[in-house]
Amino acid sequence: MLFRSEYHLKAGNADLARGLFEKAVDSEELALYLPYSKDLREALVLEHLGRMDEAEALYRKAAERDILYAVLVLRIASVHPKRDELVQTFTDRVRTMAEAVKNGAKDQVIYVTKKGEPRYLEKVEAADVLPRLRAVEAGDDSKKLRYCYIEDLDLTGVDPATLPHRMQFSQCVIGRVRMPNLDVGQLVISGFVLGDFDVGKTWSGEVNKSIATPGSRFVDLTTRETVFLGRANFQDITVTGRKAAFPLTVFEGPADFRGSRLSAAADFRFSVFGEGANFKRARLERLAYFGASRFRKEATFTEVYSDPPVYFNSVRFEGPVHFDTCEWRRSATFENARFEGPVSFSATKVGGRLNLSRAVLEDTLDMKEVSLGGMDLIGADLQGDARFVDARFDGKVRFSLDDVTRARYLEDPSPLYPLYRDYQGDEDAEEPLATGNSYGVEEVDDLIARVQGNLSFANSVFAGFVIFERVAFGMPGKDTTAEFYNTQFGGETHFERTTWYSSADFTTIYAEELALNEATFHRTLVLDDANVPGRVTLTDACLTGDATISFYGAEIGTFQIDRAQIEDEEGRHRLYYEGCGTGSGAVPDDLRIRRSFRGLTPTDDEIRAACWRDRKSTRLNSSHSSVSRMPSSA
To answer: DSSP of 551-579, one letter per residue?
Structure first.
């Protein structure tokens, strides 16, 4: 919908664009959980219309009535160019209000109701916190901690018997929180935490060289609609009840979840991590939702264990992110995610399908030594280099739709959305949130992956169905390689109608069959030492310009190749080693030469010698071919 809105805006149809932008804002999943005021909704619409000054004025107006929601909307939903400046202004105001209340002021308005009634920030002494919570538990609602200011909430050494089962702080401002090594029933916080929030493992002095205090143990833990301005420490905590809920939470400082054990459903949807997030060695024992969250700096998820599926749908990673050596027993979805920095999944195991459909990867992708039940990159955009080295894929691997499915839904791709969208909302929702085409899919060709950089599947094993139909490898004028060196294809392998601006490197592959029908090669096709007991088919494939082909040492049962594919209209052949050996086609930076000399810079004579060496006796071993005789140097 946003795409159509932007189109009409550029076309000068401002009223139509506004209507579509309003509908888009109202239909977003976020609107189900974070109800906007009219001013905040209008500010988001004005942003889409490019009217940033008016949007800023509305954010400032909204902050006068509800400063918490103004900060949440700015951090979670806004794309305003002055977003950071506005957040800083509003959080500074909260600090100023807290300081005034600390000094005895009673006129600091933290919230204004829809009826226009002000709610003033109330100072609560630390010694009165637990008595008031116990009074609430006994039924006295007048003692609820709401719109309160607590300078220092330190429960160190508190007798566990005195803790109420439920501790709730609603739209409060807390200077600092410390709850070490406690057994807590339910902790519910919303509002602002100005300083450090310590409920996890802490050290008396230098880390790993002083006495450690264990993290606390919770039945339920909720930080929904909370802004942490300092460090948030959840290291080694355990949550064993129904909720480990951190949605709509803004972590302005570092967020540390290392070693946390979340036996409850983990919910981080629409949360924002500002100064790095660390989930190293976390255990996610029930469903884990990170959908539409935002990581503004480096994020670490190494050694994370999950038993049920994990959802990273529509997440935005603005810095590097690490998913190395994870063990996800079932599926993991990163559909529609955006990776602006490098991402690595090295040595990670996924029992089910890893879904990266419609994801955008602007930097490098590393998946070395992964073991996956299956993988989808349907419609993904790989803008940087992608390395799937020494990987194993036990199920389907799809970079696009098969041609039969594509043809069936040419007119309307809407029924295809379950194919690439695993996330449908809460697991227990009565109806899915999405019932039509989404993630920017408006036609079936939106579900074809784009591979712009170097691609490598070297030494990898595909045990099942592999589909790259219609995928374009590389970009015109860019020197890249799509490398399937020593790759094993154990099931059906489809490269029909692909376009290769990259060099197509199938050196030493094994495949039962290899279909390259109607493919277009702009640089080179390398089948050296390939082992294909069945067929290699190049029906209607095309080699353009100076593109070459080689299949030195290949063992191919049936090679369906036409003379026009090894000889251009002027009679010049495309056999790489023939041209290389005579000097007419020697290319020092060709992948075959680089591989032969392993980083050394050869002379022209050394290149020609390498091209001729041991190739004079090469013959096409084919039981069926339209080529009756090949040059001896082929």
So the answer is: -TT-EEEEEE--GGGTB-TTS-B-BHHHH
E strands present in 153-216: 153-154, 166-174, 177-178, 183-193, 197-198, 202-203, 212-213
> Rounded distance, CA 260 to CA 497, Å?
48
Question: In 386-447, where do the E strands start and end?
Answer: 386-387, 392-393, 397-398
192 within 8 A of 251, measured Cβ to Cβ: no
> In the structure encoding, which two tokens stand for residue 497, read together?
């109608």
The amino acid that residue 604 corresponds to is D
User: pLDDT by residue (tens digit) across 384-428?
Assistant: 999 999 999 999 999 999 999 999 999 999 999 889 999 987 766
Q: Are 5 and 17 in contact (CB under 8 A)?
A: yes
Stronger pLDDT, 504 or 587, i.e. the higher one: 504
* Band of pLDDT at residue 327, cut at 50, 70 and 90: very high
C-beta separation of 134 from 152 below 8 A = no
Strand partners, 450: 381, 472
> Cα separation of 383 and 363, whole Å?
6
Token reading at 174: 């807390």
Burial of 60 (0-12, 13-18, 19+ CB in 10 A): middle
CB atoms near residue 52 (< 10 Å): 15
- End-to-end CA, the chain: 54
Q: What is the mean pLDDT of residues 157-172?
A: 94
3-state DSSP assignment of residue 146: strand
Please write the tens of the pLDDT for every residue from 468-482: 999 999 999 999 999
Find, among 317, 320, 453, 447, the residue nearest to 383 by Cα: 453
* pLDDT for position 14: 66
Residue 294 burial (CB count, 10 A)? 18
| H/E run at residue 335 | none
> Does pLDDT of 294 surpass 90?
yes
What contacts 24+ positions apart, CB below 8 Å, involve 160-169?
162/130, 162/134, 163/130, 164/130, 164/133, 164/134, 164/136, 164/137, 165/137, 166/133, 166/136, 166/137, 167/133, 168/133, 168/136, 168/144, 169/145
β-bridge mates for residue 212, sequence order: 203
Measure the CA–CA gap between 220 and 267, rounded to whole angstroms.
12
Q: What 3-state class would DSSP assign to 71?
A: helix
Most confident of the following: 35-39, 499-503, 546-550, 614-618: 499-503
- Give CA–CA dist 172/68, Å, rounded: 10
pLDDT, tens digit, for every residue of 102-122? 999 999 999 999 999 999 999
